[in-house]
Design a protein that fits this description.
alpha+beta, 2 domains, 4-stranded antiparallel sheet, 5 helices, about 25% strand
Length: about 200
């Protein structure tokens, strides 16, 4: 028996080749590989092992950074474990252990973090450099997010920022941000000309 792990650099997955000899699973026609990676389903296309000469082989692509439990099921040999498993762990059935494929030590490929393009929130009447930074710290870094922010949320952010900011009234900020988001700068200017510090 053997577990061969084909690890590709900078990949999120490892291809594991499960191999058992015919003498270890003396089944004339069928050996199934069952585990939590195929939900232990016998009628699943991922469970049927391929017979190659005197061996049964199955390759399975598994996600790195995890441990997987598995066992084999032969038509005439019943359930059995792989002697080359990385480890063994108790199954839900008393006295029975499952084999383990351990990929927990293989690092997962880090997903690229999509950078959010920040808007210049200082274009909103009533939002200065410091308040702009505070809004960004609270996850409001674009005109779109500001336009959709409930007033009570904005008021809560201002309150948490401290006494020096409590004079600010964010009632028109979402309206202004919507105009900025839509590129309606002339309309925004007309609105701001009627405001006093954003109020």
């Amino acid at each position: 028996m053997a577990l061969v792990k084909e690890i590709k650099k900078n990949s999120s997955y490892t291809t594991v080749k499960f191999t058992i000899g015919e003498q270890e699973a003396p089944s004339a026609s069928s050996v199934l590989l069952l585990g939590d990676f195929n939900d232990w389903q016998r009628n699943n296309s991922t469970s049927q092992m391929k017979k190659e000469g005197n061996t049964f082989v199955k390759k399975v692509k598994l996600e790195n950074g995890k441990r997987y439990e598995f066992r084999y099921l032969s038509e005439d040999n019943g359930w059995f474990n792989d002697s080359a498993a990385d480890a063994y762990t108790a199954s839900p059935f008393e006295g029975i252990e499952n084999g383990v494929v351990d990929l927990s030590a293989i690092p997962t490929k880090k997903k690229a973090v999509k950078k959010v393009k920040k808007d210049d929130l200082k274009k909103i009447e009533g939002v200065g450099p410091k308040l702009s930074s505070i809004l960004i710290e609270n996850g409001i870094e674009t005109f779109e997010k500001l336009s959709n922010a409930p007033i009570f949320i904005l008021e809560g952010i201002i309150k948490e920022a401290g006494p020096r900011f409590r004079m600010h009234k964010p009632g028109t900020w979402p309206q202004q941000a919507k105009l900025a988001q839509d590129g309606k700068w002339e309309e925004l200017k007309q609105l701001q000309d009627m405001l006093d510090g954003g109020k």
